[in-house]
Amino acid sequence: MSQVKTLNEFILDKQHDFPFASGELSRLLSDIGVASKIINQEINKAGLVNILGAAGNENIQGEEQQLLDVFADNKFINAFRSGGEVCGIASEENDDFLPFENESSRNGKYVVTFDPLDGSSNIDVNVSVGTIFSIYRRISTEGPAQLEDFLQKGTEQVAAGYVIYGSSTMLVYTTGKGVNGFTLDPGIGEYCLSHPNMKAPEDGRLYSFNEGNYNTFSTGLQKYCDWVKEEDASTGRPYSCRYIASMVADIHRNLIKGGVFCYPATAGSPNGKLRLLYECNPMAFIVEQAGGIATTGHERIMEIQPTELHQRVPALMGSKNMVGKVLEMINQYD
Ligand code: AHG
Ligand code: MN
Ligand code: MN
Ligand code: MN
Questions:
Q1: Is the separation of the CB atoms in 34 and 169 below 8 Å?
Q2: Which atom of ligand 1 lies closest to the CA of 122?
Q3: Cα 170 to the chain's mean position, in Å?
Q4: What is the ipTM of this complex?
Q5: DSSP category for residue 309
Q6: Which residues bind Mg(2+) 2 per the record (predicted)?
């Protein structure tokens, strides 16, 4: 078997990509790896421990918080607070951002926005879920983190990544120099490089739309959903619908096999459902670094100037030519 390269070895090898970094980013990425391994342990035995089901309260999203949402949120917050590289966090499960007051962290160089558990609706039915994160340099000069540190455009991300807790557990991340995927080897408890330099196929036959919302899609999106079903062997149609309702899992599959993911504006979610800071921006960074496109349907996701922590935007991302076809129909019919 070829030489195994662990996540930590890979991170250290790549440290020279950041000549001015003195190792904080490397340590931060390793901390995320450790926290995700702890969460992975709980997910793998979720049916046996009191970690399934609702936590009994609602988060700021208006969603019923799941026990695992809260468990994962706390694990990542503790990891970031104790690591010393992060001066504050913003997460789906916290109403406001959380500046770290402890001496070792209050002057940390970075802030992190994250979705501790993506795809919560799948926890109790044993379907893949994930974690999503973005890392930014702080803007405020000293003292506790400020709101401005979190309301940065996606183009300012220093790194972004996700963990997918699926048939295997993988950590996939980018620092702006390509995308690399690591698979957790439970035997040694290490993430090992398994998907070097991931590139999304430019074409594909998988589309990930929740067509339950078809009636409230824009005309252009309805036309696309009709077009994919037509018989046309020359374009590989009809395409196949693949929709897991865990953004991480849908996008991870589309990165590997080719595909297009879309969560547009709908009647129930007029700005789309997915959150800019800790779902759309990190996944957009990864998709673009893998050669794909990540847009709202009208503008590049990473160019949006955020105005609030939990703002939602429409998301259309994946294989370059497939997203291009959707944009063609949006431009023609909307
Ligand atoms: P979360 O569990 O972090 O709240 O995110 C769920 C999101 C995303 O993972 C997925 O793509 C989308 O919700 C699915 O929404 P629908 O069930 O409305 O299709
Ligand atoms: Mn999510
Ligand atoms: Mn979540
Ligand atoms: Mn949620």
A1: no
A2: 2
A3: 13
A4: 0.98
A5: T
A6: 115, 118, 279
